[in-house]
Amino acid sequence: MTTQAHLAAPRRNKGVNWEKWGWIYMRISGVVLVVLIFGHLFVNLMLGEGIHALDFAFVAGKYATPFWQWWDVLMLWLALIHGANGMRTVVNDYVGHTGVRKALLVVLGLAAALLILLGTLVVFTFDPCNGVFQDGAMWATCHPGK
Ligand code: HEM
């Protein structure tokens, strides 16, 4: 007696396999985030005077340096895309109603895009002298000779 298996040929979808690239992105961004997050915590909380040195001037000093601007922006982009993509997986796994699922995914995408845009603008346009008036403590530093 012969048994014949009538299995359908595996489907090969044309085009980019976004789920595969999402899966790979989660692993690679996870590894890079470990370095960025622990580097960030070490420099801010442990180096020199550590947490006691954290104030407005400390942050202003960091944002005057392209190295730290790019460090923070990379951390922001990788973590937000990683977090949003992870939440997309959770929503797809647990939300059964198609309409609700789609609405949540749109809100998730918009929230991530907005936060990425705002965060990037803050890092690259940060100016410690913005909003410093003549009666403020920073006036002399920001406007020497005036
Ligand atoms: C410290 C570095 C991090 C590492 C090594 C890491 C690693 C990972 C990996 C490998 C996955 C995929 C798990 C799976 O597919 O089963 C994942 C999922 C996820 N990650 Fe991260 N991650 C990190 C930081 C973050 C951060 C900062 C956020 C939030 C902004 C975040 C939010 C999520 C979410 C929401 C998921 C989906 C959870 C799920 O599928 O159950 N992760 N993470």
Automatic annotation (TrEMBL):
Domain of life: Bacteria
Keywords tagged on the record: Heme, Iron, Membrane, Metal-binding, Transmembrane, Transmembrane helix
TM segment ranges: 21-47, 67-91, 103-126
Pfam families recorded: Sdh_cyt
InterPro entries reported in the protein's UniProt record: SQR/QFR_C/D, SuccDH_FuR_B_TM-su
Cellular localization per UniProt: Membrane
Xref: CDD domains: SQR_TypeA_SdhD_like (cd03500)
Keyword Acetylation on entry: no
Protein's name according to its UniProt entry: Succinate dehydrogenase hydrophobic membrane anchor subunit
